UniProtKB/TrEMBL annotation:
Topological type in the membrane: Multi-pass membrane protein
Positions of the Cation efflux protein transmembrane domain: 13-206
Subcellular location as annotated: Membrane
One protein family per Pfam: ZT_dimer
Keyword Transferase: no
Protein name from the UniProt record: Cation transporter
Protein family: Belongs to the cation diffusion facilitator (CDF) transporter (TC 2.A.4) family.
Residues of the Cation efflux protein cytoplasmic domain: 214-288
Keyword entries, A-Z: Membrane, Transmembrane, Transmembrane helix, Transport
Transmembrane segments: 12-33, 81-102, 155-175, 181-202
Main location: membrane
Record-linked InterPro entries: Cation_efflux, Cation_efflux_CTD, Cation_efflux_CTD_sf, Cation_efflux_TM, Cation_efflux_TMD_sf, CDF_Transporter
Length: 290
């Protein structure tokens, strides 16, 4: 990733951080004044968004650091570790939000105010826009923590929509528990999002192989190099925003060592130059055809 792309990426992350700070302050303040437990719960979840934006920024910055004597394969694992920390924090947050909502179900409280609804409408639209921006950035860079943050924005929009519906029902029908039930729905959405992020983070940290379609694409690309008979083995793992792999290339047993070495370099260059695959490094092993 070029330095200009890194700068633009940082701008988007800090924009998300700034918006999350405004939303957290606005939701909690309006929720307290307007007597909406759903909006307060949604605002507390926005506090986690502030932490998530910081984690996203740190995860990306560290994962882009080059290899050093202590980290021969670079720092790509910082990306899923940041996503793991974010999802773990959200799980604990879910427990707290659920506790508050359940406690409020058994208590008498004033009806939430109608003026909280325009605030929620603005939040829903803003979060959906952030979701689309970060999803596009995550797909472009291959960053798990960026994709995780995009899903986080999407679920924020859903949770705010749940709060909107709960407040609207409470105001129209006078059923005060609708607001607290909406807060529970918010907690359920946060929990689902957290479990999903946790699973993806563990998969990458454990070097889980990517999809078979990616492996097939790599094999086909390598077999296009002149002199390659076939690909015997292809072991792939994701690290940060790129792929690392070991590939066994079968060549004719009658060629010289130097010729086989040249073919190996050509395979590596072809794979690493592929824009769609985002391959960081390739170790090529040459196998002679019997």
């Amino acid at each position: 990733m070029s330095s200009s792309q890194e700068i633009n990426l940082s701008r988007f992350i800090f924009l998300s951080l700034f918006i999350n700070c405004l939303f957290a302050l606005g939701k909690i303040s309006v929720g307290l004044i307007g007597h909406s437990s759903a909006l307060i719960a949604d605002g507390i979840e926005s506090v986690a968004d502030i932490g998530s934006s910081i984690l996203v920024w740190l995860g990306i910055k560290i994962s882009q650091m080059p290899p050093d004597p202590d980290h021969h394969f670079g720092h790509g694992k910082a990306d899923p570790i940041a996503a793991l920390a974010l999802s773990t924090f959200l799980i604990f947050l879910t427990v707290w939000v659920s506790f508050v909502a359940l406690r409020n179900l058994g208590q008498s409280s004033p009806l939430p105010s109608l003026y909280t609804l325009p605030i929620l409408s603005l939040i829903i639209v803003s979060k959906e826009i952030l979701y689309r921006i970060f999803k596009k950035l995550g797909e472009k860079t291959g960053s798990l923590v960026l994709l995780a943050d995009s899903w986080h924005h999407r679920y924020d929009a859903f949770s705010s929509l749940a709060a909107f519906c709960g407040i609207l029902i409470a105001v129209i029908t006078g059923w005060k528990q609708a607001d607290s039930l909406a807060a529970l729905a918010t907690a359920a959405l946060i929990f689902w999002n957290s479990i999903h992020l946790l699973r993806l983070s563990f998969l990458e940290i454990m070097d889980t192989a990517p999809s078979k379609s990616i492996e097939l694409k790599i094999r086909n690309l390598a077999e296009e190099v002149p002199g390659v008979v076939k690909i015997e083995k292809c072991r792939i793992r994701k690290s940060g925003q790129g792929l690392l792999m070991d590939i066994h290339v079968v060549v004719s047993g009658s060629i010289t060592v130097r010729e086989g070495h040249t073919i190996g370099h050509q395979v590596k260059d072809k794979l690493c130059s592929s824009n769609s695959l985002k391959i960081t490094d390739v170790v090529v092993h040459i196998e002679p055809l019997d």
